[in-house]
Amino acid sequence: MPKYPILVLQMQRMGDLVLSFPLFLWLERTYPGHPIWVVAEESFFRPLMSVSPRVYYFPWEGVSVLRQKKYELILNLSIRPQAAELAGELQAEAKLGPVAAKGGATHILGNWQLYRASVVENNRHNLFHWADLNALDCVPLSSLAGTRWPKPRTLHKDSNRIGLFLGASEEAKRPAVSFWAGLCSELLKRGLRPVLFGGPMEKGMGQEVARLSKGPVLDMSGKLNLGELIAVGQSLQLFITPDTGPMHLAAWSGLKVLNLSMGNVNPWETGPYQNEHYVLRSTMSCALGCWTCSRDKLYCHTPFTPSRIAVAAKRMIIEDRSGLCKMNMPGLRLSLSTRNRDGVYSLKQLSGSISQAGDLLGRFWQQYFGAVFGLWDAEGACRVWDDFAGRQPDLAAKMAAHLPRLGKEFSRGLARSTSLDDSFWNSCPLILRQFTGFIHLFLQNGGYSRESWIKVLSYYEQLASILSRS
Questions:
Q1: Alpha carbon 438 to chain centroid distance?
Q2: Are the C-beta atoms of 198 and 223 separated by less than 8 Å?
Q3: What confidence tier does 354 reach under pLDDT thresholds 50, 70, 90?
Q4: What H or E segment, with its residue span, contains residue 255?
Q5: Cys staple from 111: which of 32, 138, 141, 373, with CB 3.0 to 4.6 Å?
Q6: Does 2 have pLDDT greater than 80?
Q7: 197: part of which helix (H) or strand (E)?
């Protein structure tokens, strides 16, 4: 008998679709024999089909075909209301992500899908990557941890072509024309040949960069489709790019990436996913968890100077890892994409200052949520908390001191079946908002039912048992 298909609704941008490619591979292994169907934007999936895992793509215009089937699993990774309505309408053995009840409210199914929704505008201490969060509700952690991604290509030492992708979806995420022109000049000084890439929107930008750089710069911006970009990428030693869809495509295709992580992005969530790609990020305290900048200019761009990037690029090409670790780049942190001891995405720092409090809090919340959702035991969370309390005793005391207030509010909510004030999650200290943001959304998602309140008290007790160790 044919097995029910698995349906994934991924109607976001191109980068989100490429970050779903690992999920498609894991689903194929976890549900052998079940065909995998994917609803996505045709303008994105069509040019990616040659490098995509083996799935069946459907444009939104073809969803009428989907109504004729029953599914083993529906996983909605989209934020569009239409996707939630479709997920609610179709029949399936299991559903995950936003699902709309017929004529009723939309609920998010799955702990990790709910967690991801809770870090919207609340991701300062989130260390879970989107590609992992796509899968953790329906794929065993052992599948993620056991996946071995090929190392990025290193071409013959005489190859000196460097790709620069100029664009990104928002101005805050991409360097200015003057930066790109300066970088081209610095690369040329070091015997490297810059090649400019971009979509149709960057065509004029590429022309201006080539003109200002005053050197032999090849401008391919606006001239290649995605398939051609992949093909040309085979001849590049390195791809320097902001956080954008072509960055994920480059990493997926084996091209070595240097991600200039600027503006309102978090590389822990959307950095290049495969191993041994480079991420350069500002060390400003507001750099992680930024959703929009209200300052008079983008100060996080300032430390990214063309000469620094060119020196780093040269060392990346010749595999001079020790030289990279010794680089002095004030205001910047250079990291390498890898996997932590639990098998999920991680950024291994190579150079730059260490933010002990922020780093440890991120590790703590990652261990805590992994423990309460059953990925691993609480030993890791206890170990990181002990380290944090030893290094940051004042912050640890502040977190512990706030717990009784949360306990009283949760107990009162259970006794009276009341809802929380809209400002609850972000009125708590920043160091606790990873927790309160999830709790607030969890209760809303459960309609403030008695069962939801009881579960919240369980989450609280698990947190309190760890924090009481200090």
A1: 18
A2: no
A3: low
A4: none
A5: 373
A6: no
A7: strand 193-197
